[in-house]
Amino acid sequence: MIRVLLVDDQALIRSGFRALLDLEDDIEVVAEAADGGEGVELARRYLPDIALIDISMPVVDGIEATRRIAADPALAGVHVVILTNYGLDEHVFDALRAGAAGFLVKDIVPEDFLHAVRVAARGDALLAPSITRRLIDRYVSRPLHTGTGTGLKELTNREREAVALVAQGLSNDQIADRMVISSLTAKTHVNRAMTKLHARDRAQLVVLAYESGLVVPRTF
Question: Which residue range or ranges hold the HTH luxR-type domain (predicted)?
Answer without folding.
Answer: 148-213
